[in-house]
């Protein structure tokens, strides 16, 4: 707010408040830098991924079912998504149990779908 006021109240090209603007910008940058360092030190350092939990969530993710839609159809994919959500079973297992696709093919398609969603 102070920077805006200093910029607004300056006179044409001879803004006498430029030193104040520079000081406030540098101070804000220093505060932001310090805040990022504190966040990293107190919140981010030491975090490790729970790979087993991630793998379990990836296999039961109903969002990944959209990768199967072209192969099994919308209604079957929606039904599988509802079952996976209700039971917590792996999507590939449910697809195989319904005899819609081979489990390995379904797992490969789901893996490709998850990578596409994640941008990898």
From TrEMBL:
GO terms for molecular function: aspartate ammonia-lyase activity. GO terms for cellular component: cytosol. Residues 65-110 form the Fumarase C C-terminal domain. It comes from the Bacteria. The keyword Lyase applies. Pfam families: FumaraseC_C. The keyword Transferase does not apply. Signal peptide: none annotated. Keywords: Lyase. One of its GO terms (biological process) is aspartate metabolic process. This is Aspartate ammonia-lyase.
